[in-house]
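This entry is listed below:
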Amino acid sequence: MSRSDVWKFFDKKDNKSAVCNIRNVCKKTLKTSGNTSNLNGHLKNVHGNIFSGKVKQNNAKANTKVCSVERTESEEQHETNPDDPGVPGPSTTNTNIDESTENSDKEIMKNTTQITFMSSFKRQKTINESFAFLSSFKEGGQKSEKITNAIMYMVCKDNQPLSIVEDKGFVHLMNVVSPNFKIPSRREISRRIFLLYDSMKNMFIDKLKNSQHFALTTDIWTDIQTRSHIGITIHFVENYTINSGLLGVFELNERHTSEYIDYKLLEVCDQWNISTNSIVAVTTDGAANMIKGIELAFDKKRHIVCFAHTLNLVAQHAIHIKCS
């Protein structure tokens, strides 16, 4: 069996070591231990240009030999049945591969595989790099901040509750995906979201400047703790696309009079730099205080009663009559 090409660059010192002979300058002594792994590693790390040329040379040889074998097999497949008297039988030269050629093929493939493995070897991280990687997951670290911002985006984008960071399933997911990451508390997520609110608000105000006409929808409801809230959303068209946004949900601390509703609506428009003249329609339920509040804030002609709410009242009234 022929020797590996790596011995072109080394002189064997004894059965367990060899000396690099490149340019007669290196003279590095390396242990062989019955294989050429250390020798290949030395070429790759110290003499990179020679190692790259060696890889290309061996790959070219391997491709040449593989193509030769494929052509021989192809010729065998196209040979006809020797029992046919009209066609000559297969040639002995094409079917028998010389033993020395076979051994050469195996040696080239072995060397190519070994070199490819060494070229794909990744350097192990140093102690400082390992500690830096772990520190990035600590609070304030680069990876920690990136994951925390992704959680905040998920909460806002998908309308998830802040308590999701305490759910068992979410905690398990994060422990599997990034066990070094410390999951922030719901209070920390809430604090960070409020810090981002002002910047996001300014971005949305700039977006509203691109449109001249808007429509509002608003409603009042009471939660399970008997606290009243009013929610206000805005709708507009930009580049032939309908856009919607939540201007806010505000707690109502006074009686739901038309004057108080008028005050809250105008207050919200002022916060978002929205002119009352640009409001072309306001959709609400058919409550008397709502209708009057829209009339005071904008104009009675701009008020639209919600069709879905009206249809729901009709259905409830029909059921009530039938039960009576």
